[in-house]
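pasting for ref
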Amino acid sequence: MKNILFIASLFFCVNGLNAQITVTNTQTPNSLVQNILLGFGVTASNITVNGSAANAGIVQGNIAYFNSLGTTFPISSGVLLTTGNATAAIGPNTSGSFTNNVPATPNVSSDPHLNAIANSGVTNGTVLEFDFIPAGDTISFNYIFGSDEYPEFSPSSFNDAFGFFLWGPGISGPYSLAGYPSGGTNLAIIPGTTIPVTINNLGPGAGQYPQYYVNNLGGAGYGTAIQYDATTAVLSCNASVQCGETYHIKLAICNVGDQAYDSGVFLQANSFSSEAIQVAVATVTGDTSVYEGCSEANLIFIRPESQLGDTMIVTYEISGTAIEGLDFNDIPNPVTFLPDEDTVVLTITPTADGFSDNFEYVTITCTTISQCGDTIVSTGTLYILDSIPIPITETDPVVLCATDSVLVSATATGLYGPYTYEWQDGQTGTTAYFPTIQGVMQGSVDYLITVTNSCGYTSVDTVTITLNQTLMVDTLFSFPATCEPIGAVSAVISGATGVPNYEWHGPNDPNSAAFINASVWQNLSSGWYYFTIEDDVCTANDSVFVDILNPPMAAFTATPNDGCTPLDVLFQNNSQNASNFQWDFGNGNSANVGNMDPQTQTYTNSAVVRLIASEGNCADTTYATITISICGCTDPLALNYDPTANIDDGSCFYPEPTVYVPNVFTPNNDGDNDLFFLTTTNSTNIELTIINRWGNVVFEKSGVNPAWDGKTQNGSLAGDGVYFYKYKVDGLQDQYLEGHGFLQLIRD
């Protein structure tokens, strides 16, 4: 089992983290390697960038330090190598083709190792190289590769590439370098394969490694934290080395084909390490903080590959202000590694004690003696917090024109979403509608919003609505119409500045063209009418409904409304307030009459009947369904079976049964006339009884076709002679036949 030096065990989802990574190039590449990249059990020397001494200064920002605490990006800090300016990696993702390419000096315009991976021409890039001596027999580090070439140029000829090339004792491979006759190997490969990680090999075009591809477009994935359109997941490089020997590594990235669309590789801080029991802390925030009652953290113990063969027991020290068993759960000590087990994970669950004891911490310390005899100390510190800030961004609208309601909104950010929102009047969600100040034309009113995260922590904020206007609609009047357009609407306003403009719209369409510029509109039909008043400062709106007096109401009954074909149906008109009636009987017939006389129709098929009752310009419509069935005999055994019938009307009649009875029976097992039975037609059951000359029953049976084999009821052979039989045959309906007679049994 290979070492996995980074385990992201998250117990809650982070929601709404909009922070971006920070990128600074104030440190020299020499400092970035020595103070940021290197971890336990490794010493480095001869550090160069693009072939120049690394302590000479910054290489125009192509290599820099990054920090992602408080963002969704899973590597909290480390060293960033890019094809352009490293600050171009700062999020959020706002462009599908971002380029801020300032080639390094001296520029890498041709590199044989990168060319071999990209299968094309390198145009510019950044190469970080150094020698190192490991304290153990393994070397490991973690990284994420990202690019704006994704997804549209995967695959393409713009196959931006990178590689982590290693040379030294015990290492061999296709990448040649002076002084290393066995060649070198590339550690940046897709897990479980020997395929290099490039734009073409790992991405939507490759299609076969989706578990390692993260889409950042539109704020998805890590898109709020970084600019690159897509990245890999966190990947690990691992190699077997020899303790105390000198190795050379080359960390390189390049553009291919052109210098557009930036790419970069993020190297995790302190992950370039060897030979130690490492202690790491994994939390939901990506930093080393957890919250009481809300989240958990993993303490991850990782041992070197050289120790995998045996059971290993590691004792660690616990220190800090947080008390085990009181401020967090008891955790096992020592830690036991079984053979071939390289990682042990312990879970720390903070206790929600209700005390204000913010910023307690616990530190885990492990001490390892390497194969070279060096003492290596690894520590992990976890901070336990008892309060979670929930920043709330809200709107405070100023309303210049009074409306029935005003839309306000509030949005929470921070950890441990999703969030629930509750407004003081019981509305929920990020938005709410509140009335403007009733009866007051000027002033403000506050509304409270309470936000709760998934752990139950709350935050309260205030939304203020300010009303600053004078124009308003005091009253709208309406006067009803009949079936003729005799209705009217009228408006009363107040607070107008200058000469107001009146607009009426309708009926039933607030976007229809304005019909009249006056406070009164007459000769209207029934419906909704929309009123707008506009002065020199403001606009106010309202609406009013013009009712209708005595509208027609269509109604009728159908008797009967279902039955067998042909069916005669009587329609009784029960409409009101109407003088004209249009019938559509649904059977091809219709009628337009000026009276309410009953109507009669005959139906052979089901139909929908419609009646429109009208008076002047008004009309009403109603419907009824007539259901027609085919009635007849539905039993296929009957003489009068009707295959088209769907309802049985009880008319079935059946043929009478017939019986033929033989008079001689020879049960001598010669295969001819060995059984005595009746031959019938149109029967459902037969009862057969055989009686000997002394009146004893020798056979009795009922069924579809009972047969006598010449034996008595006790199984003995019946003798030759005359026997009496009787039978009852049931027919298909309530019919039956009864009969009797004599038969001759002959055995010879």
